């Protein structure tokens, strides 16, 4: 049997077998969630968030509660963080209260991993986003969403478009899908948004979204952070949409029935047209739902009871 | 049997039978809460609040928890709302996580109803206040409080005083009590605070609180929002209290034992004298307690198990 | 049998027997927490916090949840407090919702006690810090930590160092440990940080930390609030550390194996050196863990079931 995880800090820290095991479990949960409910009664999860977040925090909270776990939310705002306590000391404090899982979101890269290294046995650290580096539970739900809609990963020709350079979502998804043997990953976006060499091994960069989309059977649009656009040689709003947004027409260049994904929150009319977001080809709401299943699978695996 | 509710967006969207059924159930809960506890174990309620609120949020949270439900709080502050996501997209995201009930408070009128219209089957939307339009669960608890203290609604001569125009509490209470067959509703307050024709069908407007109070057997004082007074031809603080506040003397003009209600939070010394708020005729704390019962009844009805 | 507590507002309001009973129970919990879990299922605790706090709020929340209690958090930020409601009215509102325990943190002295005096039977008020006056549950965990490491309180020679004057932690700990018969309490810190006569009965004031530390077998360093230093004739940062911080060298002046405590959050390099905080003599993380046990004991005692 595949080794269960001790922590979940990044896709690179998991074996392919572990990732496949997580996906298989998440798929089972999606088929019959009631079997898994209340199987971790009395366990405790702490959400330790140094950046605001609705969807990720709520998704972990809902996943944990469905499993019967207690959930305690700690936000950096209004906490002893304001009193200047270091992340490490805050972590030690939280850990001393005996949680089973600590979910960490932090604006700086590498922090979840650093905390995992000092965690006591039995305390499992989950990276819910560290800077622009990683967001591995998002990658898990993205992979689950693709798995539900394709026979095998090798047949998927995925376009990821937008601000790849600053996207932890993209970074984790690329690693995850590469490990799972995805057929092709094409990256598209303004030059300033393209990543360096290392992070994109096995991917191909396009400088036209029209070109990238041709023949694709899945397109993942990334959120554009408007404040990032303003300082760069990148067109804003409508103009961005014309060049780099996913419109109905542009989607028409892809394979028939090509699926559309977006991690949210969306800027409708900027990186994605409303008609596309709400179309039958859109898997965007499935992604949110799968976030629940993926995180339940993750918590079950980390807290290692039989299932 | 009366049809259970699908959503609870406004008093006008409920039949009189449905409202009476809710009240009857709330009354039963108030008589023996323990029978109803943990009858919705494992269900999930999300509080989606775009305005700050203690009492309403906590009341729904307490009601849900007493029923055994999981509760997840989402506040617009520190959420993806800040990232510019639309209300509708946030709602779809929350909904995709599989809650049974979504309680929405929003500063703009009509939003809860709009969300109810797009909700998936099995997801019940509750309006916890939309702009100045409606606050129907408050009307429910107000009606319950009156029901506990009068033999029948037809014998009630109720004064509502203060800023009727901007009060969703007043608007919902008037609709609710009218449907229940209240004897009389008298509205009193500065001219700028009086409502237009439509919202006040079946009510009588007084331009003197002394006049309105004479012979009344229940008085509901509304909160004065001080920032609203300053721009208008309305006296502030002490002077407001003299003209439009409920003092011991003024209460003395009403029927003997006349009850006093206030939805809170109170401005003591402005719309209500402290002696009145704390007197034996005051039902203000009963209202809060009844908020728990009314919301438990509402959640039980919406989630439609047998009871 | 010793009388259980009705409220927990300050150490002075408890008999020595009651405090010892709490400590004995906390010790038992620390030895086998699982026996006590879920022994208060369905009870409700409200955290009513008028000051930001991570550790105290989370500690009460974790303690209550381990006991199976529902927990509702109310923070003064984003609440009806902003709408000008008085503390007393907010308390009445919370109380009307039927909680078993209300944990209050407030910036002004005496407020928890004032609320306890108006609480209904069956509602237990816990002071989680009022101004600079008291933080009795912190004193409980400090005493528990010492109890675990000494055969008896009479053999303890404790140094408390730093801003005693403004520290509710110090104030409550001194009262608690004096009642428990501690051998000796020595206070050290800049003159501006030393307390008046009354609060320090039974303690000795030192004007040199080196002198105070000699022969001590426990040292509790208090947090320095940097904003307090700036206005006074007190050296900042490094200079403060040289004169009043606990360095490895200074700790070497104490008895061998002298224990180190700190209520957190720490300013490493100011009142305490990192090497000291992380040394084997440090009980700082035990204190946090004991906070959980102490608060579970407190909640069990207040809610008075047999144990």
What does this entry look like structurally?
- The structure is a homotrimer of 307-residue chains.
- With 307 residues, chain A is an alpha/beta fold.
- The first copy, chain A, has two domains: 11-134 and 291-302, Aspartate/ornithine carbamoyltransferase (Rossmann fold, 3-Layer(aba) Sandwich); 136-287, Rossmann fold (3-Layer(aba) Sandwich), CATH 3.40.50.
- Chain A contains twelve helices and nine strands.
- A five-stranded parallel β-sheet of chain A has the order 7-6-5-8-9.
- In chain A, β3, α4 and β4 form a beta-alpha-beta unit.
- In chain A, α1 (16-31) packs across α5, α2 (55-66) crosses α12 (284-302) and α5 packs across α6.
- The mean pLDDT of chain A is 92.
- Chains in contact: A-B, A-C, B-C.
- At the A-B interface, α2 and α12 of A face β2 and α3 of B.
Quantity of strands of chain A, as a count? 9
The CATH class label of the largest domain in chain A is Alpha Beta
Strand content of chain A: 5-15%
| N-to-C series of helices and strands of chain A | HEHEHEHEHEHEEHEHHHEHH
From the alpha carbons, calculate the radius of gyration of chain A and give it in angstroms: 19 Å
Average pLDDT rating of chain A: 92
Tell me the overall shape of chain A: globular
The most extensive interface, with participating residues per chain, is: A-B, 28 and 24 residues
What's the arrangement of strands in the largest beta sheet of chain A?
A: 7-6-5-8-9
Distance between the termini of chain A: 12 Å
Helix content of chain A: 25-40%
Total of DSSP H or I helical runs spanning 4+ residues of chain A: 12
Query: What would you give as the CATH superfamily of the largest domain in chain A?
Result: Aspartate/ornithine carbamoyltransferase
CATH architecture of the largest domain in chain A: 3-Layer(aba) Sandwich
CATH topology of the largest domain in chain A: Rossmann fold
């Amino acid at each position: 049997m595949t080794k269960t995880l001790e922590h979940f800090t990044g896709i690179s820290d998991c074996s392919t077998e572990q990732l496949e095991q997580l996906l298989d479990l998440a798929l089972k949960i999606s088929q019959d969630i009631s079997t898994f409910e209340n199987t971790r009664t009395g366990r405790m999860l702490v959400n330790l968030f140094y950046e605001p977040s609705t969807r990720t925090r709520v998704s972990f909270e809902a996943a944990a509660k469905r499993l019967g776990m207690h959930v305690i939310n700690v936000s950096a705002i209004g906490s002893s963080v304001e009193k200047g306590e270091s992340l490490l000391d805050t972590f030690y404090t939280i850990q001393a209260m005996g949680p089973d899982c600590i979910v960490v979101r932090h604006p700086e890269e590498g922090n979840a991993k650093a905390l995992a290294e000092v965690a006591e046995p039995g305390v499992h650290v989950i990276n819910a986003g560290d800077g622009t580096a990683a967001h591995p539970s998002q990658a898990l739900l993205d992979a689950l969403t693709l798995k539900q809609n394709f026979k095998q990963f090798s047949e998927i020709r995925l376009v990821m478009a937008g601000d790849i350079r600053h996207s932890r979502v993209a970074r984790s998804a690329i690693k995850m899908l590469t490990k799972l043997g995805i057929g092709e990953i094409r990256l598209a976006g303004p030059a300033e948004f393209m990543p360096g060499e290392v992070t994109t091994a096995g991917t191909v960069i396009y400088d036209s979204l029209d070109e990238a989309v041709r023949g694709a059977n899945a397109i993942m649009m990334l959120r554009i952070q408007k404040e990032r656009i303003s300082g760069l040689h990148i067109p804003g709003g409508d103009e961005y949409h014309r060049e780099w947004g996913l419109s109905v027409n542009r989607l028409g260049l892809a394979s028939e029935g090509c699926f559309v994904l977006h991690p949210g929150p969306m800027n409708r009319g900027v990186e994605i047209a409303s008609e596309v977001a709400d179309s039958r080809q859109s898997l965007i709401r499935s992604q949110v739902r799968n976030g629940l299943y993926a995180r339940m699978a993750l918590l079950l695996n980390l807290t290692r009871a039989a299932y």
